[in-house]
Amino acid sequence: MRSLVLALAVFCLLCCSAARPERRRPKLVAVKRRNDTTIQNNTPENPCKATPLDFVFVIDSSRSIRLEDYDKVKTFIVNLLQFLDVGPNATRVGLLQYGSVVQPEFSLNTYTSKAQVEEAVRNMRHLATGTMTGLAIQYTMEVELTEEQGARPKSLQIPRIAMIVTDGRPQDTVEEIAAEAREAGIQIFAIGVGRVEMKTLKAIGSEPHSEHVHLVANFSQIETLISVFKSKLCGGADMCKVVEHQCQHLCVSSPASYRCRCRKGFTLNPDGKTCKAEDTCAAVDHGCDHICVNLADGYECLCRPGYELTIDLKTCNRIDYCDLGNHGCEHNCVSLPGSYICSCKKGFVLNADGKTCSQIDHCAAGSHGCEQEFMNTETSCVCKCTNGYTLRSDGKTCQKVDPCADGSHGCEQEFVSAGDSCVCRCSKGFTLRPDGKTCKKVDPCADGSHGCEQEFVSAGDSCVCRCRKGFTLRPDGKTCKSVDLCQTLDHGCEHLCVSTTDSYICKCNEGFLLAENGKSCGKPGCHDGVMDLVFVIDGSKSLGPANFELVKQFVNSIVDSLDVSRTATRVGLIQFSTKVRTEFSLGQHAAAQDVKRAVSQMQYMGRGSMTGSALRHMFQFSFSEKEGARLNVPRVCVVFTDGRSQDDVSEWASKAKTLGVTIYALGVGKAIEQELREIASEPAEMHLYYAEDFEKMGEITKKLKSRMCKDKPADESLCRCESVIMFQSQVTEKLKNLAQSIEEMSKKLETLENQVANK
Questions:
Q1: Range of 139's domain?
Q2: What pTM does this model have?
Q3: Residue 23 lies in a domain
Q4: Cα separations (Å) of 26 from 229, 272, 289, 313?
Q5: Residue/partner pairs of 465-469 with CB below 8 Å, 24 or more apart
Q6: pLDDT digits over 576-607, tens only?
Q7: Is 506 within 8 Å of 512 (Cβ atoms)?
Q8: 574 and 721 in contact (C-beta within 8 Å)?
Q9: Alpha helices for 459-560 (secondary structure H)
């Protein structure tokens, strides 16, 4: 019987109560298309009591739905709207349809009246593509039912409803994303038509399925659901009154269900039924010195035993029972929480009466173990030695006095006791003279075994080799070589530094000439290509922070191959996720190092993937004169993505290419080839690049550098990507220098290890 009552109460609190008795039943309105007529009856428009909802229709617009069936879905939506009170402060309505991609028609904050919503529904156009139901549910959760798109804050407790209409098996998975949407508080109604499986609808719809899942044989029968929803919209009962809700405090009805709430000062437990008192002490800065106790209307401070609350009702003072003056302690009185105890001074023990004290004789027990004499002190029994002896480190036995202790040994540096005598010694680096008292310094170079090629000098205990001016010591620490000034001076050579006997000269890489200043290098009659280059980088959450760092390295490797300046190549970058953000414009940086620094500091967005919005932003803003684009300068765009876009990419990519922007499309991992082809310039084989994972991005980098160089203007054909050649030459030279430095350091370490071993 209870399940029958629940079925009658489904959806009753979406927005309405019973209709006024003097008004007739609401009429059903068919969507008007071309020469179709409007179905009418004599029912008033809105017999329902206003209950605010955030309501989103999610409509399957796949190719399996015929055009006449598509119109029946629109008629179903318009007729269902007759039972909703549409308005900014009542029910807000949004709608999206989906095929292979999601196409939002209007959001919750787009229209403010029912007439506007109906007109928008009538104007919808059939997509006739695939069936990505899971993608549509994800878009509904992450975009449509958010405050940015018009959903009201969850604190207002306005139900968030999604009604999904579909006619076939999804081409993607729906179980996990539907469960995530329901967990986020979205109540889902699943309506299936024709060959869709009931288990798929149950995986989408909310519990109980008898109230949220409906299946009809064909689109002609979808109209039968109007009467089902109409009776529940306007004729149902309060769910809290017809079910055993078991709410501890309050029950609040919601569409086809209910939820429990707690009275002021309480919060709902994880079981969704019972309530617990709010921990005011944990939520506020109570300032209690010891203990904070929650009350129904706030909190109060208490003190631990032995303390009392001060006049500020927060801090605590200790109660000093010794100050009462009646403790009777002979030596000391120590206050405790709620009482006091007596204690004795050092060297005394408390008597059995707990008040008086007696001195302790630590030697009386005879267990002191002293070899010669002993003495009682306040804390222990201390051993002593007779005259001419001193106490050993064990504190018990005695030894004869050190013969060096009287200072009459006459040693110049060090001395040591040896039996009954005192013997002189010398510090390290010195040797004892024949008088047995004084010391002389040892010359470590005197024996001639130092092996130094040029010069040597004594340094403490060792003999150190040195080289004459113009030479430097080799890693073996003995032989010398001519000084390489290129390694020791800030020579300022742009390309190569070559050491001479006592100086150095600068040289240039192949294809360059040395300038008059003798340091910088220039190209003979050939300059790098001039272009305005904009990177469009995917920052969606599927990428992940680690891979996003690899993308930034990829961008900087491309920048390294370009001649970046105000007059040569200018570089801009935008990042996109659910939103689009300009990281820096074409006119913002005039040097490669500034561009690379900006790329390295770029923060990962990590949300959705709106590639189409990013292309629109690039077309409308990035190549504008305001952002630094130049007239009659080639415009190049590099688009990077790792997955399917949540919006259409073809429109804005086509517009950009029509106006002369050359677009390179780079895809990694789950990027869709068809989308990449729609983005890239023709021919696709010259402008589209794909890698299976981020570890193979290096292959894309090499191919893109090569292609961008080949696509330079004709008068630059002789340059052969000079910036790339220059970069490779510089890296090669640096690697040679690094290898030489490592070899020299290894020899020095080997020499030091041999010296330590010989010592």
A1: 53-236
A2: 0.35
A3: no
A4: 13, 37, 67, 66
A5: none
A6: 999 999 999 999 999 999 999 999 999 999 99
A7: no
A8: no
A9: 485-488, 545-560
